[in-house]
Prior knowledge:
The structure holds 3 protein chains of 3 kinds.
Chain A: H1 16-38, H2 71-106, H3 108-122, H4 126-136, H5 140-151, H6 154-168, H7 171-178, H8 183-220, H9 231-238, H10 248-275
Helix pairs in contact in A: 1-2, 1-10, 2-3, 2-5, 2-6, 2-8, 2-10, 4-5, 5-8, 6-8, 8-9, 8-10, 9-10
Chain B: H1 2-34, H2 39-44, H3 53-63, H4 69-81, E1 87-88, E2 93-94, H5 95-130, H6 135-148, H7 152-166, H8 187-221, H9 224-231, H10 236-257, H11 260-274, H12 279-288, H13 292-326
Antiparallel strand pairs in B: 1-2
Chain C: H1 12-17, E1 24-36, E2 42-55, E3 60-65, H2 71-79, E4 86-94, E5 97-98, H3 101-107, E6 112-115, H4 128-133, H5 141-151, H6 168-181, E7 186-190, H7 198-213, E8 217-222, H8 225-231, E9 234-239, E10 242-248, H9 249-255, H10 261-268, H11 303-307, E11 313-314, E12 320-321
Parallel strand pairs in C: 3-8, 3-9, 6-7, 7-8
Antiparallel strand pairs in C: 1-2, 1-4, 4-5, 9-10, 10-12, 11-12
Helix pairs in contact in C: 5-6, 6-7
GO biological process, one term (chain A): transmembrane transport
Protein name (chain A): ABC transporter permease
InterPro entries (chain A): BP-dependent_transpt_permease, MetI-like, MetI-like_sf
Amino acid sequence: MKYHSISFGTRMAISRKGLLLKLLGLLSLFLIFVIGGSFIGEEQIEANMSQKNLGPSIRHLFGTDWLGRDMFFRTLSGLHLSFRVGLFSAAISTLIALILSLLSSYNKYFDAMVTILIDLLLSIPHLVTLILIAFVLGGGVKGVVVGIALTHWPSLTRVLRAELMQMKTAEYVQISKKLGKSRIWMVRNHFLPQILPQLLVGFILLFPHAILHESAITFLGFGLSPEQPAIGIILAESMKYLTAGMWWLVLFPGLSLILMVAMFEAMGNNFRKMFNPQ
Amino acid sequence: MLAFHIGKFILKRTLKFVTLLFAVVVLTFMLVSLSPVDPIQSYLGAEMMVVSEEQKEEIAEYYGVNQPKLQQFFKWLKMFLQGDLGTSLVYRQDVLSIIQEKFVASFALMALSWSMAGILGYALGVIAGMNKGTFADRAIKLYCFVLASTPTFWIAILLLIVFSLWLGLFPIGLGTPIGVVSEQVTWLDRLKHILLPAATLSVIGVSNITLHTRQKVIDVLDSEFIRFARAKGEEGFTLFKRHVFRNTLFPAISVHFASFGELFGGAILAEQVFSYPGLGLAIVQAGLNSDVPLMMGIVVFSTFFVFIGNLLADVLYTMIDLRMKNGEAI
Amino acid sequence: MNIVYKFRDETNEEIEKIKSNFLLEVNHLSLTIERVGKGSDVEHLHVIRDFHLNIHQGEVVAIVGASGSGKSLLADAILGIHPKNSLIEGNIKYENQPLTEKRKKRLRGNDILLIPQMTNALDPLMKAGKQVESFIKQKNKQKIVKDIFQKVGLDPAVYHQIPSTLSGGMIRRIFIAMALASKAKLIIADEPTNGLDAEALDELLFQLKMLANDNRGIVMITHDLEAAMKIADKIAVFYAGETVEIADRKNVRKAGKFRHPYSRALWNALPQNGFVPIECSQPSPAEEIIGCSFASYCPEATKRCGTEKPELREVGNGEMVRCFYA
Lengths: 278, 330, 326
């Protein structure tokens, strides 16, 4: 007798082992960027007039620019720079988010204040705020880091705030409260350990935004200075040579940036999946 | 009844916005006063050398540079409330009229790309959500994922290379080097100029609306009434037309309205690449040339722009909510 | 991923038993859900293991089982709207023709109609009347719907209302209205009595009976044996994903008891029969069951019950029981 049946779900949910493997792959990619970038010395990206305006080849994977600088190494050190700027600003932003969310869980006045701050920040387009801050601080790394740090915390703050609000009503917290434990004690023993995964995931997910905004603001001319081989600078400069047909100056640095940003995005998402599997 | 509720809602929101705007203004003013920019120097620019000390004094007097900050602020606020945003240093023109002029151009760009992104994004989101787990879904998800990691200006440059340089379909838009506004552009040029930046913003803007719609479609498909609709034999396009569409369209539009901030940011970048003479180009000019009045004017204006988007989003949501409560079908 | 396909061929004897005039006939139906469990292991949930049911036109058959025992998935399986990660095996016939997935697709909503369990089964943004209209092929739909609404005791003005403004009882009547509007011969009512007060319940049961008198077959999935005893012609008792007994209501009334120990436990738990609490739970669907599914709770279980699985056997008059000793 023929049994009519449908096949099992076309795709299986991701198994956790696969998730771990994916994370490992992403981590190794990450190491290539960071460690690879820091090994690049001046000599690899110095001008070499005999090698200028070359398209991509085995010798110069990403081609060379109008000064004969190797674009592969320039791109790598640009990524390395972006990574450092991203790391720094994302770390500060995460710290701000942590402090503000703890404050807002403290009492409703602080909460109202934090809410107003979030509203305030979200009321201006991010890029406009970034331009304003970079302008006020006179551009440079400082302007970029401060700008990004000051604009990227709201989303994470909201997540952490919600988490903390929920935690506050939990039984074990209430018991600690009745036992007369201090705020600081509870923050250290209940809240911090509990939101640590969220904090980590939030931190990683801040990265891609930080890096994208860094490159954007640099591209517009408010960010890192032209001597620094940031991706934004490389791309802004490359626009002058577009009519000369040097497309490789645009394509490869941009693709590399996307790769790095996407990697952090994927890493954050995978970490999140690992911490709260559905 | 509905109109009354909506009116009340808008009023409440506007009041909140006014306080918020005030905070933005104060904050911006504070930030700008902290900046190391010398207003006289930025006003005079290259003329700094040929102007006498007395004239500099006069200019400083006029701008109130030597007055205490607080006094400067109130003077500025008073002028602001009277609709006088000062004179742009770069354009040597009234800030308000510059913003008006530039916004017309930017509005055309943003309206075009916003609509294109909305339609395309909703369609892609529906396709992905209705076919969850299939190849189409994964491809669309991948597209959104990659696009979310892509710098807007890079897409802009790529489009410029492909369509202007290689295919020669559009002007390169770089007749003037970055940093100088092309004053003499014809209307035909403008039309040609708008397509590529609009395409850039659409390509990028699709990501958010697609992913949101996809999730919403999946949620709706998971609901009890869809299970029942399936039990009634509805599926595919009928199911979509009868039930999914009306339950996902308004939330999607609402979310799309709430994306005005990103739209504005994207416009800044696209305008920069294509030398499109809009607000985005103006704010970059203002920033690079220390044009404080224009800068502040655009910051305030962009806040207003984002507010309008969020307001429309919320009004739409409230309207659906109220209609549901009052038992009116949509 | 290993899927164990279980094929079970019916013996000639069994085939002979199947009468030719059934409206719906379900034999050896199983539904397995596959999902990722703890760790990265794949888990198989045997929600339905070995289900049997048959129904004639004009008959009401109640499927009675504990809440949360996966009865709703039965309806889904028959209608072909079961979740994608589930596997259906077994043999379903509708009007003597195998009910393939393709045929299910064609018949659902037309020949076979579901009366859903949840009152949120109506589209929240669509007028109530419009949702009933889709069953009507003739012109002048609105008038027909309003007439039907009156028949089931609804104000015709309800036509223009959206579900959030309607009470649970009103929505149940809309479901009945849909059944009346449709030409469906088989109606599967999934927990139709949930959340109704005594009066509304009687009215609903009456309406279901009316539908049956209209020469339709009604499959009523319920946890309420008492309600089932009021209108059902046959009662199929569902335990651990299996049909453990198919009993004729009249015979049960006459004998004052069921045959299968689990059915008897359900029966004795009714207020009028002594209110004896049921001291058993459902085995986990993740478990593989060897022997009788009820053995560990059964007061009459023997060694054989723990090692050998009893088949559903005919005990005369279309009644069946899955027990060695009944």
